[in-house]
Amino acid sequence: MPTLPDVLAKLSFLTATPAIAGLVITASLIVVIRDWRFSLAALLGQYVLVGLLLTRLIQPEVALTKVLIGALVCVVLYLTARPVGVSGDGVLSPRRPEPVEGSKEGPILEQEAAENGRSPLRAIRGGASLAGFSFRLLAALFVGLAVYSLSKYYSLPKVPSDIGFACYWLASLGLLVLMLTEEPLKAGMGLLTVITGFELFYAALEHSLSVAGFLGIANFLIALAIAYLTPSTALRRSLSRAEPRGSGQGAASGSELTAGERGRC
Amino acid sequence: MLAGPLFLIVLPLTLAPVVYLSRRWALLAASLASATALVMASLCWRLPLDRPLSVPGLTSVLGWKVALGEPMMVLGREFALELAGCSTLGFIYLMAAVAFLFAWRISQGRLFFPLGLIILSLVGAAVMIRHFLFAVLFLWIASIVAVFIIQGDREGPRRGALQYLVMVSLAIPPLLIAPWLIDLQAVNLDNLALLRYATVLLAIGFAILLAVVPFHGWVSAVAVDAPPMVAAFVLTVANAVVLLLLLNLLQSYPWLSEDPQVFHLLRLGGLLMATVGGLLAFAQRDFSRLLGYAVLSDMGCTLVALGTASPSALAAALLQVTHRSVGLMLTAMGLAVVRHRTGSDSFVNPSTGPWSFGPGTKGSGHRLGGVARHLPLSTAGLILGGLSLAGMPLTAGFPSRWAIYRLLSGYHSPAPGLSQVLLKPGAGLALAMLLSGAGVAFGYLRGLSTLLGPSTEPKVKREPFIASLMILGMIVLCIGLGLCPQWLLPPIERVVESFSFLR
Fold it and tell me: Do residue B140 and residue A218 have CB atoms under 8 angstroms apart?
């Protein structure tokens, strides 16, 4: 039976350019794709690829532990997102666009949609989704260019240049995700991506096992925190869709409605 | 013999599961959590650091004495309680005990008691561990746990909890890399650039944790989305521990405390916080957000005081941290009752804009008109606590603010360049702090005018008796500290003496 070093020796061809290319793709997918299933798969792939890169910097056993923690994080997020329910485009409980009174947008879209044989809601969602996709793709491209320059002129110490680029890439695209979304699950993936980029760099600086343990605990707790925040959001949104505005009864529900309105402002 | 650090870390951690299991019985859970925090507070304040003493119960049952100052090694890392840490923890535990007890009558979420105890254990570890890197890691984990209580068991917006999680997590990487740079410089003594990089990283990390503008968004978000007492708990604990870590860092690294740019940054950050906090507090429409900006303004004032780099300024800053917590707890208590009884904390009619005084008409978007008649003590607590945060006379916040104004008025910055124009005139800084406080006070007075106005919500239940008693106690404390601030001066002066970097 092959041992871990044997397996790693066979996979050593992956620990250079292919892993970096893989990280570029996975982080970009997390930014660009709104479907949580693809994003989560990309996050899992990201943890595996980072684990492969880490074998160049730290002991393989520690790198494997980091991959296992990443897998656990993904399991937690998957179990959280799965029962909530997914819309047609794979986005977790999307907010339904509200018709604007007096606006011509609605009837025109309805007409166009009828001509195209689609429902008006799908037409609006499809248009918004396409625009959002283009915007995110463009933003990822710009950030990618910035990262390329940054890693070229300000190389990170103690890590090879390709790994330095990967650290910059993960941290920057993670930050971009955080800037582009308020959805806890998606924002959580962005945060985890930033932390993964940092850990890839920090592993070369600090070899202490206790620090690695702390970082693992923090990652797992962040996943739990995101899981704690995610389903409730979906429930709130589905409730706000089901109930007409201002129908909150009693002090408590009134409070939540007020707070909810505040939060959206 | 039991080492103090072990006791302070393990006791809340052990009791947290018990409190969690008893969470359905609010009285039991609150009593257990509050008693635990009180026991730890009394240990910190009453036991001497230099010799073991018997503790009733523990010594008689297990035969153990507690040596509070005895260091403890865990996995090669040393935990030890020093004077500043001991006073800070004692203060944090006392505030936590008050918050837990209050949450018995006005629920702040069922997870508040057990997770609050876990947070106390983790911040205790962060304060007591000697290595800065691990202190940061403990603080990070405590902050992640805090996300659960910020959200509580409510179905509401997630912005506060999410922003807090994201911002704290983003602050950690620079704080973890900085110690590595400092260690690296210790073996490359000529490479002073490493220390500059470390200073920049520390500045970024602490700026995020202290909510310096432009990283301040999480404070108001937490104040809005978290239950009021949870917000007060998180802001009190986080701020006290982060400030202590900063002071310990300045104490440990003379090159840092001897760099005038560090104190210049503190002043600049504080000035920005106070200005933005005061201005935004002036324009708020609801008490929750107002609370967030009031805290921001007050924290800015503390940073400006620290930035003047003198022992008396440090004493004033520490006094302000203590007084802020009293004001914060008081206003949070009042807000919790008002929110619980009316379901709202918005005091300005959205249709008339943010500048109007008075309650507006019934059903116009808020329910606080005339609430002062139904909830007099809560209203008094809410407003008095807010005015204390603003540093108004006769409240706890005034003596420290006054001391800071006086210190600033005689202060001249040695920092060069643009800062000479902006920050050199100490009187200008003092005026900015004063105006910031005035902005906060104006916000609360505007809220008071609504609370005293015609009733828009006639069916408001009376305030709970126990909660009212606690609010009354805090009002007395707030006014008492405003009139006799010297009560707290001896312990604060001892803490200031333990920091030698300002001499």
Answer: yes
> Could you give the angle at the alpha carbon of B394 between the alpha carbons of B389 and B398, nearest 5°?
45
Decide if B147 and A225 are in contact by the 8 Å CB cutoff: yes
Q: In the numeric block, which tokens belong to residue A96? A: 């339904």
Residue at A258 is within a domain: no
* A213–B contact, CB cutoff 8 A: no
Domain contains A138? yes
Residue A221 touches chain B, beta carbons under 8 Å: yes
Comparing CA positions, the residue from B177, B231, B324, B424 lying closest to residue A171 is: B177
Domain count, chain A: 1
Closest listed residue to residue B38, CA positions, set B123, B96, B111, B102: B96
Beta-carbon neighbour count of residue B487 at 10 Å?
Answer: 11
Alpha helices in A55-183 (DSSP H): 60-81, 105-116, 120-153, 161-180
Task: Retrieve residue B245's tokens.
Answer: 């870590």
* Cβ count near B352 (within 10 Å): 15
Tokens of B171: 């602050």
Q: How far is A152 from chain B (nearest CA, A)?
A: 19
Q: How many other CB atoms sit within 10 Å of the CB of residue A117?
A: 6
What residues of chain B lie within 8 A of the CB of A254, using their CB? Answer: 343-344, 367
Residue B404 in contact with residue B317, Cβ under 8 Å? yes
| Interface test with chain B among A230, A243, A255, by most B beta carbons within 10 Å | A255
Q: Indicate the residue of A202, A222, A264 with minimum beta-carbon distance to B169.
A: A222
Give the SS3 label for residue B67. Answer: strand
In sequence order, the β-bridge partners of residue B286 are B346
Is position A115 within any domain?
A: no
With CB atoms and an 8 Å threshold, state whether A262 touches B147: no
**Regions in chain A scoring below 70 on pLDDT:** 84-130, 231-265
In angstroms, rounded to a whole number, what is the distance separating the alpha carbons of residues A38 and A217? 25
In B77-131, where does DSSP find H-type helix?
83-105, 112-128
Instruction: Compute the distance between CA of residue A32 and CA of residue A47 in angstroms, rounded to an integer.
Output: 18
Domain annotation covers residue A137: yes
Q: Record the tokens describing residue B77, joined without a space.
A: 């890392």
Q: With CB atoms and an 8 Å threshold, state whether A232 touches B155.
A: yes
Instruction: Give, for B3, the enclosing helix (H) or strand (E).
Output: strand B2-3
Write the ipTM: 0.90
- Whether residues B173 and A198 touch (CB distance < 8 A) is answered with yes
What does the pLDDT look like over A20-72, one tens digit per residue? 999 999 999 999 998 889 999 999 999 999 999 999 999 989 999 999 999 99
B346 → closest Cβ in A187, A194, A258: A258
- At residue A122, what is the residue type? R
Lowest average pLDDT, out of B99-113, B147-161, B432-446, goes to: B147-161
Residue B389 in contact with residue B374, Cβ under 8 Å? no
Task: Give residue limits of the domains in chain B.
Answer: 259-490
Task: Give the chain A residue whose CA is nearest to the CA of B157.
Answer: A260
**In this complex, which of A178, A210, A235 lies closest to B75 when CB atoms are compared?**
A210
Angle subtended at Cα A225 by Cα B215 and Cα B160, rounded to the nearest 5 degrees: 35
Q: Please name the amino acid found at residue B402.
A: W
| Strand B2-3 with B65-67, pairing | parallel
